[in-house]
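Form 12-C: Joint structure prediction
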Amino acid sequence: MSGVTIAQVEKLPPAQRLMWAFRDMKVVTWRNLMASLRIPEAIFFSSLQPIMFVLLFRYVFGGAIPVPGVSYVNFLMPGIFVQTVCFGAVATAIGLSEDLSKGLIERFRALPMARSAVLAGRTTADLVRNIFVLVILTVVGILVGFRLDNGVLNFLLGCLVMIVFAYSLSWGFAIIGLKAPNAETAQLMSFPILFPITFASGAFAPVETMPHWLQTFATYQPVGVVVAATRSLMVGGPFLDTTKIYWAFAWSAVLLAVFSVLAVRSYRKVG
Amino acid sequence: MTDDLAISARGLVKVFNRGTTVRALDGFDLSVRKGTVTGLLGPNGSGKTTAVRILATILAADEGTAEIMGLDVNKNSADVRRTIGLAGQYATVDENLTGRENLRMVGQLTHMTKATAKLKAEELLERFNLLDAGDRTVKTYSGGMRRRLDLAAALVAEPPVLFLDEPTTGLDPQSRNDLWEIIEQLVANGTTVLLTTQYLEEADRLAEDIVVIDKGKVIAKGTPAELKAQLGTTVVEVTFASHEAAISASAVLEEELKKSPMREGAMLELTVENGPKVAADVLRALDAAGYDILGLALREPSLDDVFLSLTGERTKAELAVADAPRKGRRRTTTPEEVAK
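Section 2 - Result
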């Protein structure tokens, strides 16, 4: 210890810093995933909710919602997938809020780790969780009649579109997590944003059946675009609309750029 | 800025706006020499923790400058973080991870290799007597165990400067002693420690220099001996059979000596410059008034006395926590912690 001098604290080349930032992000991601594995109840119930949605819409509302050209379950599943990964962003808000109130972020802030790692590690862990839930949901979907009629590759591309979008959205909800006074409030603050964007999106019913003013919103708002893009890939046929795919990626890029800057700014201000 | 300072702060100001405006730090200065322990003493809300958080780069000061090992906390915050360890007032470890995982995580986040982080974790688990609990999630730990793990986490990177913010609050006497020994060992090996505490006994034992802070300002500093010397040289303690006797005798002594004694239960204390003479006067006065006393003692002033005289306008009750160690009312552990 007596040998420790300032000499060890040298200026680092940017490449090395980037590598460290990436390593830090991996460590924090691992920690978040590990922590959620320790609460199997949370995994179980967070998977249960989207399954309930599938069953509800497939069997309760589905009969009353006519869609042109395809079976309702094929129409529905891309919508449910998108809705589910969007709701996954609530976990980002709650997780960060909890870390904050437990003082864990304080410890992280006093460590020589990259400042971005706490946020990047949280959003990445939530991305991994989203993939896990998507796998479960796909199995459930197939059990209730969903078919990958447009090919496996297109299905996977559809998943990619929504995963990328959900990742961007996570950064937005990170801001809520950092601003909310506690985890409960973070959750309460999330829903009024999530409900309109996921339900008024064409996820569950064709946009054309909505009043005109709502159609405009549902068509162009980010979740609406992502639903259309996903459906274009997973179902195709009457829903084929390649431009929506580009628009979905464009929305994701714009949101990620804006949200990540704002989230990092809020993170710096916390404390 | 001289080279032998590990920590230096000049004119730190921090204002919080939470409903009302609070000047948590109001022109705070601090100099800590390399390889020493400085005790930062002050009552609750005096600004101790705010000072530590600014020095640890967690919080930015509104005014003033601070350097750790010559590195500016604002301009070189990344380098500062590589130089410091922090054990907070609340044990900030991840309760969903095991003790072992927590330490490895911190090791990796300080950019050790995986293998080194692993070794370091084992070493610290052993040193802090947590080997058996290493694979349990922290959720199952007692308060004392969390505390130890938190400290272990602060030591992972073997930082040359260590901030300990009330490190022994909540530890049982045995663990407290163990911890003091660990801190002494660290300092012997060259680590600089800034220790905030409400336990004067702790500061007295560990700290070479003491800084007393109140309302965000330094109100006194020096070695424990210097601080004690600032005060009257001797304390005269008279013990009575009951509180009532002490209360009424207090009036007698005040009348006789023109100085009002401090009362602690059935005991009266007088801090004076000429102890033996006052003791004789006290005995004479009490004897004349017909009081029976159980005990009479002359002692050196403790840091408690220094503390009390410095933050004088407070009542004893308010300082009960800070005052606790010497009076045997110290809250070391909760019953649950002992049970565990």
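Section 3 - Comments
Chain B has two domains: 5-223, 229-327. Confidence is low (pLDDT under 50) at residues 313-340 of chain B.
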